[in-house]
Amino acid sequence: MAIQMSIQHDGAAATGSLVGQVMQTVRQQIASRQMTPGMRLPSIRGQADRMGVSRSTVVDAYDRLVAEGMIQSRRGSGFYVAGHPPPFSIADTAPELERDVDPLWIARQSLDADEATPKPGCGWLPPSWMPEAEIRRALRRVARDADFRLTDYGTSLGLPGLRQVISRRLADRGVVAAPGQIMLTESGTQAIDLLCRFLLQPGDTVLVDDPCYFNFHAMLRAHRVTVVGVPYTPDGPDPVRFEQALKHHAPRLYITNSALHNPTGATLSPVIAHRVLKHAEAHDLIIIEDDIFADFEHEPAPRLAAFDGLARVIHIGSFSKSLSAAVRTGFIAARQDWISELVDLRIATSFGGGGLSAELVLAVLQDGAWRRHTSGLRARLATAMETVSRRLHPLGLKPWIEPGAGMFLWCRLPDGLDAADVARAALRENVVLAPGNAFSPGDATSGFMRFNVAQTLDPAIIPTLERAMEVAGKPGTGFSQASP
């Protein structure tokens, strides 16, 4: 069976020689498992016609791939994928990007940077903003509890006391979920990963917001599904485009943040929520609602799970953003029958849950200082939002909206600047930014930048950002410049 391939000839993809492009296309097809061992490549003539290149270009590319051992030549038959495929690489499933603007590389830079490195582009709060005193107090409390076994697995659903607390917290946001409808996970990321394993097959289509949290794209590529973006508005996904995507692509799943959207900071309106759920019911769509920023809200925003009653909406969350990223605990709230199957899946993939982390989270949530911490956090973020917005304004960085809460500002760059170019220039000065290019596979967000206001308060960041914008806007500096 032959597989068809094509080369993009736009400015972003047309890098290197034509021979190199043919080779890279074949490599990506093999690495992403679109071409498997023994599969026949298109003939030289057919490949040349499909790609709009000469036959000699294809011959040269195929010969080099044979020399690399990627493909084999069979006399009188053609070219075939050789042997076993290389280890799966998520990066190889997407168009080739500069590594310092690739979503996974941005995460690596933020995770690996030392404390002295400014990280305006990361997605978490500074350590000094987190409740370390409460966590240390909880550690001592758990250590003194003779009834708690420090060496055993957690229960299949997770710590009952913590699930009861989560159930009450969800009820405050209008989401009715009994403790038996809640399963603890190691994190919000693991929650989505388990749900993708549970709901999806390779080749399925998944809707995401455009823009959306960049790790959604990386995770979905790992599950080998087709990702379709729906433009996001200040009130939620564009309902017309949402319905069109359902009709044209028949997706299995939609993943979104309904409260304090990442990266835009927007909040879902009740009207849009009802329209989304109406379309979802008509097209048998399942929705994952990621609610990890709930503790940053001043007033609860509409939740799809609250309107839907967990019929086709699965609600997830974690404590990484407001409590601790080191204490890995998240949760899934869903239909009872789905929870039962998800428990089996989690046991099959990671066995017992993290009992120690769950005990620590429960001890912190039961501490009287927890409510004061979250209240102070919201006030501190509101002040930071105003301060950072004021500092960015003279640079020509304009917020897409003024968020009502949270820690993100989604800002438009001055005309002619590409966010990836700015991020590369800033990286040379050891500042990690989050260019809009990472939040969408298209070009619509290349003129935007996401700022974590808590991580952008360092006054030295603004001059660095100004220099990076100046460098990115100059021709002949190694960066591309968009036409005004």
Q: What fold name goes in the CATH topology slot of the largest domain?
A: Aspartate Aminotransferase, domain 2
CATH superfamily of the largest domain: Type I PLP-dependent aspartate aminotransferase-like (Major domain)
Morphology call: globular
Distance between the termini: 47 Å
Question: Class by helix and strand content?
Answer: alpha/beta
| Tally of domains | 3
Give the strand line-up of the largest sheet.
Answer: 3-10-9-8-7-4-5-6
The helix content is 25-40%
- Outline the low-pLDDT stretches: 1-15, 480-484
How many distinct beta strands? 14
SSE pattern: HHHEEHHHEHEHEEHEHEHEEHHHEEHEEH
Number of helices: 16
In short:
The protein has helices at 18-31, 44-51, 55-68, 103-112, 132-144, 160-172, 188-199, 214-222, 239-249, 270-282, 304-308, 336-350, 355-365, 369-392, 419-427, 461-472, and strands at residues 71-74, 78-81, 182-185, 205-210, 226-233, 236-237, 253-256, 286-290, 313-318, 330-333, 398-399, 408-412, 434-435, 448-452. With 484 residues, the protein is an alpha/beta fold.
Please give a handful of descriptors for the protein shown:
13% strand, 16 helices, alpha/beta, Arc Repressor Mutant, subunit A, Aspartate Aminotransferase, domain 1, 3 domains, four-stranded antiparallel β-sheet, 484 residues, single chain, disordered C terminus, eight-stranded mixed β-sheet, Aspartate Aminotransferase, domain 2
